[in-house]
Amino acid sequence: MDNRVFALTGVHNFRDLGGYSAGRSKLRAGRLFRSGHHFGATPEDLTAIEALGLRAVIDLRSIPERQAFPCRRAAGFSAEVLHLDDFPPRVRAETAPHIEAALRAGGAPEAHEMMRASYDGMPFRPELQFMLRRYLVRLAADDTPSLIHCFAGKDRTGLLVAVLHRALGVHADDIMADYLLTNTAGDPEARIADGAQFVRQMHGGAVHDDAIRVIMSVDADYLTAAMRAIDELPGGFDGYLQTQIGITRDQRAGLDERLLEA
């Protein structure tokens, strides 16, 4: 699929995550989308997004993130938005992994290790498990177009998309290739600059340039760490979906039925 990346101006990393081979089948294109936040969306961006006919938006950002960077919508926007407002308040929603890394990193090597370590625990963050379940349950019941996004559209979104791809039988090489596409999709320099401004705003400006580039990019080591942590659980990946996320066999079958081509 050659045209999965959308050339938007104010929304970074917007792309179709369908079209990949999955065993003897293939993911349907034009149904599953991913991106960063839409705070900077231009009128032209909103027109392009509206044309996709989205019926659901899964917003993985924390409530403070959404309050600080509310997504812009087209005038006729009517999609259901799933977010963390319904998340149990007794459990704190953590910040984006790249923000966590920025708060602790020195140079590039330390930033890389902070990001990798963050991915070790990402599959078990309660708020991400909560949203992963909502995402998969929705997709298992309804195949109308949907979009999943976080702030940069690379870590939280990247992990949940990788889990979805794996659940549908996408080959590991394609899962990794889709994850790494963040580094080249659209205008990565603009995305890094946008993220750097936000990171420095939160951190008082004391973040090295080389650390910023690491923090605002993705690396195979990160997703490998997350998947290894899942695979080491009793029951491995299937056990993770069933026990940790609460996805039933019928819901797994629903994902296949609605998202794979016949």
TrEMBL record:
**Which SUPFAM superfamilies does the record match to this protein?**
(Phosphotyrosine protein) phosphatases II
Entry GO MF terms: phosphoprotein phosphatase activity
Tell me one Pfam family matched here.
Y_phosphatase3
The record's section on InterPro entries has: Prot-tyrosine_phosphatase-like, Tyr/Ser_Pase_IphP-type, Tyr_Pase_AS, Tyr_Pase_dom
> Ranges for the Tyrosine specific protein phosphatases domain?
122-214
For this chain, the family text in UniProt reads: Belongs to the protein-tyrosine phosphatase family.
Record-given protein name: Protein-tyrosine-phosphatase
Instruction: List the source organism.
Output: Sandarakinorhabdus glacialis
**Lineage summary:** Bacteria, Pseudomonadati, Pseudomonadota, Alphaproteobacteria, Sphingomonadales
